[in-house]
Design a protein that fits this description.
Blueprint: H1 37-58, H2 67-86, E1 97-101, H3 102-105, E2 110-111, E3 122-129, E4 132-138, E5 141-142, H4 143-155, E6 165-167, H5 169-175, H6 182-196, E7 199-201, E8 206-208, E9 212-214, E10 221-224, E11 238-242, H7 243-248, H8 253-263, E12 270-271, H9 272-279, H10 285-301, E13 310-312, E14 315-317
Parallel strand pairs: 2-5
Antiparallel strand pairs: 1-11, 3-4, 4-7, 6-10, 7-8, 9-10, 12-14, 13-14
Helix pairs in contact: 1-2, 4-6, 8-10
Length: 324
């Protein structure tokens, strides 16, 4: 059966208004006088570059100056510090990008249900890498929670995980394309509480999705990513996606498929049973197939998949588009 429709889904056409940026987090009492750990990282890189240029000049002298050896040791020390710091920071992504470990996008962790009562506690097996499986324990999470999690990674990306990072909740809500009212503020509050209540257990580590959450009635809120959150990036591919596209797609199967498509080098014909299992949909197979067709229409319109996809005989045949 082809993907032709008698009508265009109402959710297909996305708004075109300007989307405010995710607010940049800030932290108090940073060392070394820098405004972020990433700024400190850039400062060290600058020191290394300057010292290496000096060493290159000294190497032309004969005999070699006595202070050259000490400077070479300093360069090595700074390079060791660089390597350590680079492994402690969330991979860099610019203001119009969101990022997540692949294993959190292509699994049922952030499910595709859009309504109904959430389960208070679930246990999920999460394929993580070729040698590791994670177990999620905590409240049922959905695609809307996944968007907030990526936004928190984004606003805290310049700081070592574990550090308390402050942000303006109104600015974060507006970065999702919403007006900030009491209900939106309460929804964000509940979402971060859910993330704080969820943990991923590995063979030899445990990571909370959010380790700390401060939410005074007035003023900025604060979050702290788990100090071990970088374990989720070890041995797995980080996936980048357009922030605007992820934010403005209707939350559910369409956003889950965006992450799935972005994580694939090419799209081979894929079993609907496999997709339904991976996204955690509890729909009947016939209803899931109908939802898949609608989601693919939305993704085609947004150039995530190319026109010409088909859902037939229990498989989807598709190709990545320009935004896939």
């Amino acid at each position: 059966m082809s993907h032709d429709h008698e009508h265009t889904p109402a959710s297909l056409h996305l708004p075109t208004h300007e989307l405010p940026p995710i607010p940049r987090g800030y932290a108090a009492e940073l060392e070394h006088g820098f405004d972020s750990d990433r700024a400190r990282l850039r400062g060290i890189r600058g020191e290394v570059k300057k010292h290496e240029a000096t060493l290159a000049k000294l190497a032309k002298r004969n005999p070699l100056p006595a202070d050259a050896s000490a400077l070479a040791c300093e360069v090595q020390r700074l390079q060791n510090e660089l390597e350590k710091m680079e492994g402690q920071l969330v991979p860099w992504h610019h203001d119009e990008q969101l990022l997540s470990p692949k294993s959190l996008l292509c699994t049922p962790l952030f499910g595709v249900a859009r309504s109904g009562t959430r389960q208070a506690h679930v246990v999920l097996r999460i394929p993580h890498s070729s040698v590791c499986e994670l177990t999620y324990q905590g409240p049922e999470l959905r695609q809307s929670d996944g968007l907030v999690f990526m936004a928190l990674l984004h606003l805290a990306r310049d700081f070592k995980p574990g550090r308390r990072v402050f942000f303006n909740p109104k600015a974060l809500i507006e970065s999702f394309g919403h007006q900030c009212g009491g209900s939106e503020r309460q929804q964000l509050h509940q979402t971060i509480l859910r993330l704080r209540g969820g943990s991923l257990l590995g063979p030899d580590f445990s990571v909370q999705l959010v380790a700390y959450f401060g939410f005074p009635k007035h003023g900025d809120w604060s979050v702290g990513l788990d100090a071990k959150v970088m374990q989720l990036f070890e041995g797995v591919q980080p996936i980048w996606m357009q922030r605007r596209l992820r934010t403005e797609l209707p939350s559910g199967l369409a956003t889950w498929l965006l992450g799935y498509v972005r994580s694939q080098v090419i799209l081979n014909p894929t079993s609907l049973t496999l997709l339904q299992h991976r996204c955690g949909s509890q729909a009947k197979p016939k209803n899931f197939a109908a939802s898949l067709r609608e989601a693919l229409s939305i993704l085609e319109h947004n150039q995530v998949v190319e026109p010409g996809w088909q859902v037939v005989k229990g498989k989807v045949t598709w190709k990545k588009g320009e935004n896939g």
